[in-house]
Structure formats: structure tokens, C-alpha cells
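Example record

One chain of 404 residues, shown exactly as stored in the release files.
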Amino acid sequence: MAPYEPEQGTTDAEELSAGRRKAARYLVPVAVAGVAAATIGLVPALASGGDPDLPKLTAQELIEKIAASDTEQLSGTVKINTDLGLPSFGGGAGAFAPGGAGGGGGEDDEGSAADPAAKLMELASGSHTLRVAADGPDKQKVSVLDDAAEYSVIHNGDDVWAYDSATNEAYHTKDTGKSGDRSGKKGDLPKDVPATPKEFARQALKAADKTTSVKVDGSAKVAGRDAYRLVLKPKDAGTTVGRITIAVDAKTGTPLKFTLTPASGGAAVVDVGFTKVDFAEPSASTFDFKPAKGTKVTEEDGRAGKHGSGDFKGAEPAVNVIGEGWTSVAELELPGGQGLPTSGSADVPADAQRFLDSLGDKVSGKFGSGTVFKTRLINALITDDGKVYVGAVTKDALVEAANR
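Predicted C-alpha cells for this chain:
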């Protein structure tokens, strides 16, 4: 873990089909916002039902308590509220994602409605309820609950399944260890799947270096359990992150809630935390999954058919990180090395174009020219020659990074 400075007194073939290539070009701002939000840490406002009286701990002691936590078995309900400030056009941002509403998964479409990369984009806005369970490094399950449907990702041993009950589609892959947890170990859900507040806290604590003020700020009651509040505040100018608050279970050291508030103030960008949690061993049947007859199954190698379509994931672009800490910026290239389609292009549906125009500001510099797409937390600069600069930083910081 990186060092930090406590305050005094406390302390993310051939080629894809033409249709998906076109989609990727105007989906980048939306995808970047969603993935970056998940990577930086989806967050919740901490509910206090009478703050408990707990023994005093320093920030260093509390961080050590988190690091020493050996919680491997739990189940519970997680509430996620996301407010990135994205405008809504009917189906919302997720409607433009391949495999999302209006984005694929049909019989004649090469995409899959069970594709986690597309399905989990829906978590980038609105309120969602997740049911989670874990039993050691080889068994985890995350289910996104809707009014009349359920979407689940299940890891059990060497198998990883994703299933969408609304479309009766499933995605299947083998766990080779490459899709393991964020520390690179074998046996966790794919990295795009938010599991528990612990995953988000881990990302935030990676940034808790000398550019960060860290302190313990009282206690709270979360999901009926006593918890400490750990508060992180960036010292760097140029970041859009205002503060992060992590509620840490006083007994187990497990993060129970995670709240990120933007530097611009107002409500939390995203709220993520347990409303119910149980540290007992989940039933073994929780992690069982076998597609029923008639389920459309997409295998990782692209073979599809009725049990007994499509590409799950294209080649990931190379990412270059500029800078360090809270003001770091990721640099990558759009597919095909081209910038965004211009207004009126046949490649872009009208709703998608309105969505892009509502977010974008034209900018220029030594790098050339481009458009900055803004949310309350994540901003992205897409240059006219097809490069993308993205981070939890201001517009000026993006332009400065591109000028380098």
C-alpha cells in the first residue's frame, strides 16, 4: 500500500463488425464514464442511526485493520445510487451500449444481452439494488435486481457465468486467472463487475499517498453494524474528487459503505453500501448455475446457440497513464484511430448525437483540437485524430495532459 500523510491528531480475426465499430465510436464517452466510475469507486452517503461509541483509532490503525481483514464469506444487499450528471434520453446511457436496450442481443445480432461489459453500463446512472454473496476466492455472485427481472454474474471454481432473465441469455467463460481480482490473483469476478464496497475502497486506498489527507472522522451505524468513518481528501488541485468516506466494520475491518463527493459539492456522485450484511457462510447452492433448455448461450470464443452469439469483448486498447495520484490521466486511442463522427453523420443515431452534444465542449491546444465530455466526476477529452484522455480531473487538466 502506498504511503500517506495523516492529518494531525487522526488520520478501472479480422475485426469487429462495421456496426459495432460505429457504435464504439460514439459510445466511448459513455463507456469511459461508467468504467471509470466503477474503478474510482461507486459511493454512498453514510447513514447514521445513532453514532456508536467506539475505541479511538488513528487513520493508520484503521487502514491496517482494513488490510488485515480476512473476510471471505458474506452475503447481503447493496444499494447503489449514481449521479454523474448524465442527461437521459428515454433508455438512458445504457440504451446506447451494445447489448443494452436497443443495442443488441437479438437473434440476428452478434451481441449478447448477458455481456457484462454492456449490461453493467446501466450502473452508471440511477438507483440499483444488488444482491451479493462470496465464499472464499473461488465463489462469488453479484445479482442486479430489477422490478421484473434479474441479471447475475456467478463465479464458481473454473466457471464464470452471466445470465439475463429478461432475455433468457447467458454468457460463459472459463476462469484462467487473467480475469481474477484487481490484485491479479486467480478467482474473482471479472474486473468490470462491482462486488462489494471493499472493491471500491481498495481502489481509493491505492490513491492514499502523500497527496492525500487521511483521518478518522467519528463512527456510524451501517447495515445494523458499528463502523468507523475513514475520510480521504485529495490535496492536489485539478482533481474533481472532493472527498471519499469509507465506513469500516468495527469488528471485521470490512468496508461496508463508500461515499465519493465531488469537488464541486452537492450530493454524492455515487452511493454504494450494504443495507443488509451477514458474515455467515452462504449456501453452496447460491453459486450453482446451469442454463435451462432454450437459453441462448454465448461462449467466450464467440460460439453461440440454443443451449444443449457474439463477441463478449474486443481487444482492449493500450492505455498510457500520464501523471500520478488523483490527477492522473489515462490516454488511449479510439478504434480505427478516428475521432468522433461529425454532426449529421449516418453513423450516429439522433439520440446519441444529442447526448454527445449536450456533454461536449470544444477545446484546442498543442495536441490539435477535440471535444471534452463532462460528468460531475469523470471528464474525457476526445481529440479529432482519435485519442482519448480521461480522468477524475478538470477540463484544463485534460488539455494540459494532451499537450504533453
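Notes: The first strand starts at residue 5 and ends at 6.
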